[in-house]
Amino acid sequence: MKNLRVLAVAAMLGLGPVAVAQQAETPLSYYLPAEVSYNSSIPTPKDILGYNVGEWHASHDQLAMYMRQMANLSDRITITEYARTHENRPLYLLTITSPKNHQNLEQIKQKHRQLSDPSASGKLNIKEMPAVVWMGYSVHGNEPSGSNASLLAVYHLAAAQGPEIDKLLDETIILIDPSINPDGMNRFASWVNSHRSKNLITDPNSAEFDEAWPRGRTNHYWFDLNRDWLPLQHPESKGRLAKFHEWKPNVLTDHHEMGTNATFFFQPGIPSRNNPLTPENNFKLTQKIGTFHAKALDKIGSFYYTEESYDDFYYGKGSTYPDVNGSVGILFEQASSRGHAQESVNGVLTFPFTIRNQFTTTLSTLEAVQAMREELLAHQRDFYKQVQNESKKASTKAYVFGSELDRARAFHLAEIIKQHQIEVYRPKESFKINNFTYTPENAYIIPTDQPQYRLIEAMFERRTTFQDSLFYDISAWTFPLAFDLDHAALSSRNFKSSQLGQKVEDLKLPEGEVVGGKSDYAYTFEWHGYYAPRALNQLMDRGINTRVATDKFTTAEGKKYDYGTILIPVAGQSVNAEALHQIMQEVAQQNALKVYAMNTGFNPLGIKLGSPMVLSLKQPKVMMLIGDGVNSYDAGEAWHLMDDRFGMRPVLIKTNDFNRSEISKYNVVVMAEGSYSNISKDKLRNWVLQGGTVVGMGTAAKWLSDNGIGNITFTKSEPDTAAQKAYADMANSEGAQVIGGAIFETKLDLTHPLAYGYTDEQLPIFRSNTLFMERSKSPYANPVMYTANPLMAGYISKPNLQKVKNTAAVDVSTIGAGKVIAMPDNPNFRAFWYGTNKLFLNSIFFGQIISGNSARAEEAH
Fold first, then answer.
1. pTM above the 0.90 mark?
2. SS3 for 252-276, per residue?
């Protein structure tokens, strides 16, 4: 019987698949450097967990227990809980260094942070300063070799003995984040452990390697946390970033996995795909650090590659965010066993083998950081000195953004910016730019002359030219466009530092109120506020009757009300006037809204409150289809928005269960990007005919079109008729036609229910696909259209740019008594695309009131 070390060597040498019998134990000696001795009083991972590393996939509770125990047992380790996940699992950061350094840790931390302060960094003696390295493991829960390697890393750093480890701990502060995604890690470990045979099965067809939807890559709401470093929409990311800036590490490692048939990758990535805001020296340091990884992997005989895949363009990734903060981010990608042992083109790839490569590069990183300590410290110091010079010479002296009618949206952008250690101010006085008046109450100013200048530029710039046409992730993420806020770049001609008012320290959601006291007639609130849908849903939850105004009106006091104003009559409610007033006060305060008490329904201008143009609303009963075929990211973003942010209760129904489910109790169906071939199109169509609203996004809209549910038309792709092209150019040529993620301008029909709450006809939309929807023949069924010059930021090929011009961004069809709302784009992208959330929510709340005359009509049959 071959033990796992033999199997790993077989895989490493590219031998054919090896039959795996009952798993043999993998001793610590397989992983640990032979030349190091270890303190026998420090327990091994097996002593605490009861099994050898790699024999089972550690669950998160086991990993957390091990880390707490090691912190209790070693004077080299302290542990801090920095956040809790959506499923209430703790996230830990271990600080590992010499006992001497632990005694002066706060002083070391404060001095290290001075490297980012040019006024103080020149006085620092970097020869005497320890370097700081952050090691982050398994942000994707089903890429477990990283988190399991952290068991070995912590053991090694706690138990290793000798002058070399003592010197390392004296000269280095090591921060270990053992599981960046506890919820996903636990989901995956549970799957593979429960499908593990006593005699290991290596056949890729085994259920062990085919985890159930949504799989363990993502967090509780099915978000990719490796894209959340910049948007900061989840507790895992918010807590981690606070610790990152508390320490500002010199190097941050990000341990991932890739396809089973690959080998091992370490950065740098493809040179032409670096973000231009990242200094060239960062790439050189990454290359130099890579020589240490190559040497270490050569020593154990592991194959690897570098500079041929991946990129460092999007700053929302864990290995790229450090690069714009004076640090060096390093991505590792290990071929994944996706279980305990699996056949690959290189032989049987075992879980212990994957762990060993991650642990080996953990040690090589520490070796590199120690050897390059002064060089890395100098890079961080020089980075911020260079930034200071750049910011003083920059033509843009500040950015301003705000919203007159939706201060909650502006608040949330300011909230994100502040978490990135960027100074935020209120304007001292009101000023007007581009027909918008920025006031101390509705606006925020971000001066560019500050240490985070490059990150500010990364968040606000509109880049449309690029060195490369291929992107591993999105090519644009301009935040004020994502939030659909009025904003401007201020030059020295229209900005002076004297315009800065109060520095924002304690940022709070704007307070709501009921204006006019208790009413015995009615209350109203406009739909402009970001949380207006949440307020409406709260009222519906309490059984309060609500109505919506489908036209404008003006009161005798001169207050103008826009399309989509919500009306709450006092009479006919299940509660008395006193109780309703109390409810309205609570709803206003919780949702940053101004609610107005009305004393009459007679308005001198526009409709009256009893008009037929004021329609009664039914509470949405939402069913969202999930499961096999559905894009879990897009579904998770919709679920998170409805559940976590807006307090709704969408019922999640698996596509495999749809055909046998009783769906008449629901009046809205949400279909995220995906394939729905396993649901009954006739059942869905009949449900729509009876009055339901279906909202289809991305390829779900295309599926609705293909199956005759809605009169939706997509343009057909023209075949490439070129007689011959170079085979070597195929990947780049085809990749250049991908819209990986860019921002486009659309025009709204502000009178349409799907546009209620918007005040500007221009709406930036995020697009990441090549689905182009044709305009409806009905001029009233195109509430959102791409403009003739739509590109606002990001990359798109010239042919695709021509295709997207003047096409429909939203289409509304009528079938019988129901509606089909098609959106080729995702309005809820990564939870930070606040500006288009309202399109999605309006579809849910107001799809029921859209007139058949304003949609593509389709005869019921």
1. yes
2. EEEEEEECCCCCEEECCCCHHHECC
Closest CA to 398 of 482, 456, 438: 456
CB-based contact 664:692 (threshold 8 Å):
no
- Provide mean pLDDT across the span 795-817: 94
Runs of H (alpha helix) within 720-763? 730-735
467 pLDDT more than 80:
no
DSSP calls for 527-569 = S-STTHHHHHHHHHHTT---EEESS-EE-TT--EE-TT-EEEE
Residue 777 has pLDDT above 50, yes or no: yes
Q: 354 near 312, Cβ under 8 Å?
A: no
Percent of the chain at pLDDT above 90?
Answer: 89
For residue 823, what is the enclosing H or E element? strand 818-823
3-state secondary structure 26-53: CCHHHCCCCCCEECCCCCCHHHHHCCCE
Looking at 329-478, list the stretches that DSSP marks H as alpha helix, in order from N- to C-terminal side: 351-371, 373-393, 407-419, 453-460
Residues 6+ apart with CB under 8 A from 588: 512, 513, 514, 525, 535, 594, 595
Give Cα separations from 382 to 117, 315, 378 (angstroms).
Answer: 10, 20, 6
Cα separation of 283 and 267, whole Å?
9
Nearest residue to 452 via CA among 117, 701, 741: 117
The Cα 757–Cα 537 span in angstroms is 16
- Based on C-alpha coordinates, what's the Rg of the chain? 29
What is the β-pairing status of strands 808-815 and 818-823? antiparallel
Sheet strand arrangement including 560-561: 560-561, 553-554, 605-606
What are the structural domains, with CATH classification, of the chain? 4-387 (3.40.630.10), 403-503 (no CATH), 513-616 (3.30.70), 622-716+734-858 (3.40.50.880)
Contact 429, 231 (CB under 8 A): no
Length of the chain counted residue by residue: 861
- Other CB atoms within 10 Å distance of the CB of residue 731: 10
Instruction: Say whether pLDDT at 4 is over 80.
Output: no
Q: Which of 5, 807, 75, 728 is nearest to 351 (CA)?
A: 5
pLDDT of residue 453: 98
Number of H helices, E strands in the chain: 25, 37
Report the distance separating Cα 449 and Cα 390, nearest Å: 9
Query: What are the structure tokens assigned to 144, written together?
Result: 């477990």
Rounded Cα gap, residues 505 and 702, in angstroms: 47
CB atoms within 10 A of CB 721: 5
- What angle (nearest 5°) sits at the alpha carbon of residue 358, between those of residues 830 and 85? 35
Q: Is 183 helix (H, G, I), strand (E, B) or coil?
A: helix
Contacts with 512 (C-beta within 8 Å, 6 or more apart), sequence order: 587, 588, 589, 590, 591, 592, 593, 594, 595
Give pLDDT tens digits for 614-649. 999 999 999 999 999 999 999 999 999 999 999 999
**Over residues 348-373, mean pLDDT:** 98
- Alpha-carbon distance of 675 to 810, in angstroms, equals 19
